Each structure stands twice: as C-alpha cells, then as structure tokens.
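Quick sanity check, SKP1-like protein:
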Amino acid sequence: MSERFADITKTISVDDVDTISVHKMNSKMLEMVLEYCKNVKHNSGLMTDVELKDWIAQFLDVDPKTLLDLLTSACYMKVDSLMKLTWSKIDGMIKGKTPEEISEIFGAADN
C-alpha cells in the first residue's frame, strides 16, 4: 500500500469523504500507481514469480516521459518498491550514455 494513502486514511473517516484530492499527479499516474499496488503489492500468490516479473516488465514498458512521471508519482505516494523498480529501469536506459544521448531519450535536448 502507498504510505501516503495510509497516512490519509488514518486521519479521515471514509464515511465522511466523497473524494480524496491527490495533488502533484495526474489521473493517469494515479491509475498506474494504483494498478501497480493492486497487482504487485497485493498479489498474494495470484501470479507466479515469473508471471509477476513479466507483468512488471510490461508495466514499465512505457515512453520515457511517462516513466519519469511514474517515478515522481511513486515518490509522492511513497511506494518504495515502485520507486526502486522505476529507478532501475531509468538506470538501464541511461547507463553508458552521454549527456546528449540522455537528453534525447527524455526529450530534454533543448534544456
């Protein structure tokens, strides 16, 4: 579970709230973080280790911008395992690359 959600649910009663505002992330990223938590954090043996590894690889097979947004969202939501997996994916993408190549990968050539 996300530590941020755990913190939120400790301080409010679900019966008293219709919506919970999650700033600093868009709905696509919130959906991705929740999907990750549902499929990985709460797997409880529903998938084999191989199936889970394959699911994670497919889940992280997104464009670089989405990957950076996912990392930011995982950090904000305090989902440590997703942060580590996302950092690892980014590390693999940039390892051995020049600064110029890294800028091209992440669309920051003008920055």
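Posting the structure with no commentary besides this: The two ends are 36 Å apart (CA to CA).
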